[in-house]
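Every protein is a chain of amino acids, and every chain bends into a shape of its own. The fold becomes a row of whole numbers, each drawn from a learned catalogue of backbone shapes. The protein below has been through that process, and both of its lines are reproduced in full.
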Amino acid sequence: MTVTTLSSRELNQDVTRAKKAAGSGPVFITDRGRPAHVLLSFEDYQRLTRQRRNIADALAMPGAAGIGFEPPRASIETRPADFS
């Protein structure tokens, strides 16, 4: 998956380039150097908005690598069964 970044001016000058780039990954569109919009293929949009998303799909999303996620380690202890 390729991430492409275009300024608003570049998008206005070459929409076809942006649409082709969206076929291989998200296209970030910037205003004054700051991300403002994202252009996605319809298939990518449907995949992202699917109601039943599993954790593997969420972690595979573009940009997910930048999200900090440190879950606490589970502590599982055994104890003797009480049959009285």
Observations:
- The helical segments are 8-13, 15-22, 42-49, 55-59.
- The first helix runs from residue 8 to 13.
- The chain has a mean pLDDT of 86.
